[in-house]
Amino acid sequence: MAIQVPGKRYGKRLQHSKVFGHGGHAKKSGYSDLLITPLVDMFVIIVLFLIANFSATGEVLMMTKDIQLPEAANVKEVEMHPVVMVSGEQVSVSGTIVGRVEDFSKDEYLNIPALEEKLRDMKKQYEDLHAMAKDDEGGFKGDINIQAHKDVEYSIIKRVMFSCATAGYNNINFAVMTIAGDTPANGTTAQVTQ
């Protein structure tokens, strides 16, 4: 061990400091201390910002090639609810195909039994989930979005609406494209009107 002159001794970090360690002429190290805490704080803020923006501007309706929505002027913002998609060929609920439109046009029933059963299952799942979570405020309100092709016959839409109402979904919203006076038709977004 080397013998040192008595006096103030600074820590290893301050030995090369110009003020405390007389290190103005010392060799600079290739490594520097990285402060992790502010870096982690910055990443947490960025992640929270991205999550907040994603939920605010996220797509509620999935647009497909098979469905061209009708246009409307008076609309409200679309909200997250179960979606019944009616294209020219098939009817589906939240991605599950219920049946073909061609078959439904031949039947003379007022409802679509497969659609009604699927919606009742979804309603029961929703109610069970909220009952387990003891969430009294988030009770079932019966909201549903219908995303139908503009050329689908009214009798099919009427059957879909009747099936939704029978299953307990009484607040029916239709997805439409917004037509505003100045905006071009291509720049429209999906909206819902009641």
UniProtKB/TrEMBL annotation:
User: Which controlled-vocabulary keywords does the entry list?
Assistant: Cell membrane, Membrane, Protein transport, Transmembrane, Transmembrane helix, Transport
One Pfam match: ExbD
- Residue ranges of the TM segments: 35-56
InterPro entries for the chain? ExbD
Which subcellular locations apply to this protein?
Answer: Cell membrane
Membrane topology, as annotated, equals: Single-pass membrane protein; Single-pass type II membrane protein
Q: Does the keyword Transmembrane helix apply?
A: yes
Q: Which family does it belong to?
A: Belongs to the ExbD/TolR family.
Q: What is this protein called?
A: Biopolymer transporter ExbD
> Native species of this protein?
Pyxidicoccus parkwayensis
